[in-house]
């Protein structure tokens, strides 16, 4: 694994990775329970993740095998299209898997 400093939207097309995992800041919650203090601080520093939809589009165009999106269990889907190939649900999050099928052997 290699850490590359920069905007993923700029780097992904040139990298052509097999798998991309996208874990954007979650949308605002509707209930009154607070998230952990560390995440509230991080959210205050980072702000709203307004380009997560665009990042997903770049990831889908760049990944050779699949894109995995970590998203809140009860939140509306980040993308209306394409639909995920399959999902794995936990107590609070779901992982949506999008098969891209563009890998060349």
Mean pLDDT: 85
The count of helical stretches stands at 3
Number of strands: 4
In this structure, how is the largest beta sheet organized? 4 strands, mixed
Which stretches of 5+ consecutive residues score pLDDT under 50?
A: none
As a percent range, the share of helical residues equals: 25-40%
Percent strand equals: 15-25%
Which class best fits the helix and strand makeup?
Answer: alpha+beta
Q: Strands of the largest sheet, in order across it?
A: 1-2-4-3
Rg estimate, integer Å: 15 Å
- CA distance, first residue to last residue: 21 Å
Give the SSE string. HEHHEEE
SSE arrangement:
Blueprint: H1 8-15, E1 19-22, H2 37-46, H3 52-62, E2 66-72, E3 86-89, E4 93-99
Parallel strand pairs: 1-2
Antiparallel strand pairs: 2-4, 3-4
Task: Describe the structure in your own words.
The chain is an alpha+beta fold. It contains three helices and four strands; from the N terminus they run αβααβββ. It has helices spanning 8-15, 37-46, 52-62, and strands at 19-22, 66-72, 86-89, 93-99. It has a four-stranded mixed β-sheet with strand order 1-2-4-3, covered by helices on one side. A hairpin with a 3-residue loop joins strand 3 and strand 4 (93-99). The radius of gyration is 15 Å and the shape is globular. The two termini are 21 Å apart. The mean pLDDT is 85.
């Amino acid at each position: 694994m290699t850490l590359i400093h920069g905007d993923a939207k700029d780097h992904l097309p040139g990298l052509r990775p097999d798998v991309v995992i996208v874990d954007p800041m979650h949308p605002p919650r509707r209930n009154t329970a607070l998230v952990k203090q560390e995440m509230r601080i991080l959210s205050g520093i980072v702000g709203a993740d307004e380009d997560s939809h665009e990042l997903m589009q770049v990831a889908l165009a760049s990944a050779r095998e699949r894109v995995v999106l970590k998203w809140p269990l009860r939140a509306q889907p980040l993308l209306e299209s394409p639909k995920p190939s399959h999902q794995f649900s936990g107590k609070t999050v779901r992982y949506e898997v999008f098969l891209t099928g563009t890998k060349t052997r």
